Amino acid sequence: MSAIDTLWEYLAVAVGILVILGGLTFGLLRGRAGRTKDLPAPPSGQPSTTSPTSQEANDSPTTAPSRAPVDTLPPPAESTEVTEETLPPPPSRPTVETPDAPAGRLQRLRARLARSNSALGKGLLALLSRGQLDEEAWEEVEDTLLAADLGVQATTELVDKLRTRVKIENTTDEASVRRWLHEDLLALVDPSMDRSVANSRIEGRPAVVLVVGVNGTGKTTTVGKLARVLVAEDKDVVLGAADTFRAAAADQLQTWGERVGVPTIRSDREGADPAAVAFDAVKAGAELEADVVVIDTAGRLHNKVGLMDELGKVKRVIEKQSPVDEVLLVLDATTGQNGLRQAEVFGQVVDVTGIVLTKLDGTAKGGIVVAVQRQLGVPVKLVGLGEGPDDLAPFDPEAFVSAILD
Ligand SMILES: Nc1nc2c(ncn2[C@@H]2O[C@H](COP(=O)(O)OP(=O)(O)OP(=O)(O)O)[C@@H](O)[C@H]2O)c(=O)[nH]1
After folding, report:
1. pLDDT at residue 172, as a whole number
2. For ligand 1, is residue 389 a contact (CB within 6 Å)?
3. Rg (the chain; Cα; Å)
4. Atom 11, ligand 1: which residue's CA is nearest?
5. 274 CB near ligand 1 (under 6 Å)
6. Claim: this prediction has a pTM higher than 0.90
7. Pick from 25, 30, 314, 358: CA 20 to 30 A from residue 379's CA?
8. What does DSSP say about strands 380-384 and 392-394: parallel, antiparallel, or unpaired?
């Protein structure tokens, strides 16, 4: 064999070896690429706790994967650079509510009044317009009025008037009876009484309103709702939480105030001197140049001498720096005659100037309006007709009588 033949033989062997090596390398690379698809890399920033072994590749259910499946993996973390878009939204400021306008509220809420009192109006109309009115029929009319808490005196007056009219006019026609009843009830409710609530500065100082009553009548709720009425009238209001007896009362009042952007002066100490809190509230009202300071007091039984003395003291302490312009007595309309006794005693201690009748939505005893005004000689100024924030209405005699009868 020549030297050239030997060279060719070497060359052929070398080419063969190269072809085999190339094939092996290609196969290895393919295998690696396939596995990479099956087992994704961990998301950036998350350290891998296990290496990608054949066990992971098997995806065996007995060996729970330490990484999430591909579909649920979070997208890779993006740039941490802070831009305006990535900034969290600013903390939301508490929104201040806009209460309903107080004018005409009773008209709007008349359905609530009518629902519970229409038995009175409809019952009376049915009785009076049924034709011949004998003694028995008049007695029924009387019973209906007494059941509505109108009181004996007002009932007798009303029945006497109606009997005279029926006799003179010689008719029981429904439209006429309705008209007479409307006129006579309205006269009893007395539209001539001043029902305005002190709500404006007087001689360069805020008006001061003190709210009193027995437990659970709705004082704190009324103060909160009254704040809304005043805010709707564009008044600057300061609330005083002088109910230091019931732990939650100050919180409750503060929440009412915050909803309409009104500050509440309170003590964080349970059982603090209510007179001191009331004094501080009036002082703050003067400093803030508020239009009106409304002070909530603790519920107290009218027959507990010590508690009534305390109320007298609250008023006297306030009066060391400002007159009290309005004392509102809150009465629960559902308590009937007992409410009248309360009114009498409170009137003796703190000179009540106005009545707030709450829970009139839940009773057919609307006659209490007349009875309490007569007993105390002070007007019903506000009525509560529900638990909603704007369910406190300035009392309007005409709307009240219409709601009962129409
Ligand atoms: N249906 C109805 N519920 C009312 C009305 N006014 C107040 N309430 C409810 O009466 C309950 C007592 O109200 P509060 O304001 O806590 O009574 P309070 O007189 O301050 O209570 P004390 O501080 O314990 O004397 C609450 O559940 C009120 O929502 C109203 O006009 N109608």
Report:
1. 81
2. no
3. 41
4. 218
5. no
6. no
7. 314
8. antiparallel
Structure tokens at 76: 């890779």
334 lines ligand 1 (CB under 6 A): no
The confidence score (pLDDT) of residue 384 equals: 94
Which portions of the chain are predicted below pLDDT 50?
1, 22-82
Ligand 1: distance of its center to the CA of 332 in Å?
9
3-state secondary structure of 356: strand
- pLDDT in the model for residue 173: 82
Dihedral of the CA atoms 336, 337, 341, 346 (nearest 10)?
Answer: 20
296 annotated binding-site participant:
yes
Any binding-site annotation on 80?
no
Token pair, residue 282, equals 């009036």
361 lines ligand 1 (CB under 6 A): yes
Residue 201's CB: how many other CB atoms inside 10 A?
17
* Tokens representing residue 129 in the block: 């317009």
* ipTM for this prediction: 0.97
Q: Which atom of ligand 1 is nearest to the CA of 300?
A: 25
Chain-centre distance for alpha carbon 125: 37
